[in-house]
Design a protein that fits this description.
By secondary structure, the protein is of the alpha/beta class. The chain folds into 3 domains: 84 residues, Winged helix-like DNA-binding domain superfamily/Winged helix DNA-binding domain (Arc Repressor Mutant, subunit A, Orthogonal Bundle); 90 residues, Periplasmic binding protein-like II (D-Maltodextrin-Binding Protein, domain 2); 94 residues, D-Maltodextrin-Binding Protein, domain 2. The protein has 10 helices and 12 strands. The strands form 4 sheets. It has a 5-stranded mixed sheet, sandwiched between helices. A 3-stranded antiparallel sheet has the order 10-7-11, with helices on one face. Strand 3, helix 5 and strand 4 form a beta-alpha-beta unit.
Amino acid sequence: MIPIEALQAIDSIDRKGSFAAAAEELYRVPSAITYTIKKLEEQLDIKLFDRDKQRATLTPAGRLVLEKGREILLRVQQLEEQAKQAHSGWEKRLRIVIDTILPCEPLWPLIDELQKQQPWLDIQLIDEALSGSWEALISDRADLIIGVSGDEPAGGHWHKVHLGNLQMQLCCSPEHPASQLEQPIDHEALKDFTHIVISDSARHLPQRTLGQLGIQQVLAVSNMSQKVSALVHGLGLSHLPRHIADPLIAQGKLISLSPLSNPGGFFMCWKKQTTGKANEWMRNNIIEQELFSNIGS
C-alpha cells in the first residue's frame, strides 16, 4: 500500500522542482523526503524520478503514480473536510421535496448560499405530488418537504409549519369548447369535458384523486409543467394555482372558467428527530424570509 505521505512528497517535488523545496513545503528535512521516495521505489520496484537531470523529473511510471495519487489526495482532503463537517453537526446530504404545485425559484438563492457556506454538502431537490411528498418523508427518501396540504397521514411524528395559502383557478384554452359555455357556468356541464390532473406520486400510501368524482374522462400527467402544457394545447380543463394561472390568462393563453377557490394552506414538514444543521438552516431561512408567503396572493 502506498503511504499518503509518499504521495504528498511526489506531488510537492513535482510542483516545487526539487527534493529540497518539497522538504521545505512539507516541513521535513531533505533526507526524510529522499528516504520516503527511495523506500517507495523499492516497494514498487520502479524508478519514480530521473535524478540525472538538474531538476527532479518524473519518469513515465512516476507520472502515472502522481496523476492517480493526486486523485487520492483530493479524496483524502474531501474526507477530512466531510469528517469535520459531520463532527460539527452538518450533515453530508440534504434532500428537499417541493410539491409540484409550488415554484422552485424562491429556493435557489438559499440553496446557493448554503452550498457556498458548506461546500461539501450535497443537496437534492425532488419533485413529488400530493401524498407522494408525505411518503418521501415517512420512508426516509426526503429530509424536508415543502408545499404539502393539511391532509397528512396518521402518525404525526413530524413538525409542521404553515407557509402560506393558495387559491386555485379553473382554466382552459380559449380554443377549448368549454370556453364557449355561457356564464355563469353550470359545473355539472364541465364534467363532460376531459380534466387534466396531476397523478399522485405516492407508491405505497393511498393515492388522492382530488375533484375527479363524476368526471367522464381524465388526462393524468406527472407534474405541473406537463399540466400547464396540456392546458395551453387545449387538451382539457383543470385547476391551476393563481401564481401560475394569472400570467397565462393575462397573456391570452388561458381563460378563467370560474371564480377563484377559497384559499387552501400549504405547509413545510420534517421529522421530529431531525437534527442536521443544514436542515435547520434551510427551515429557519424559509420561515424568517417568508419565502412562499406571497405565492398565492
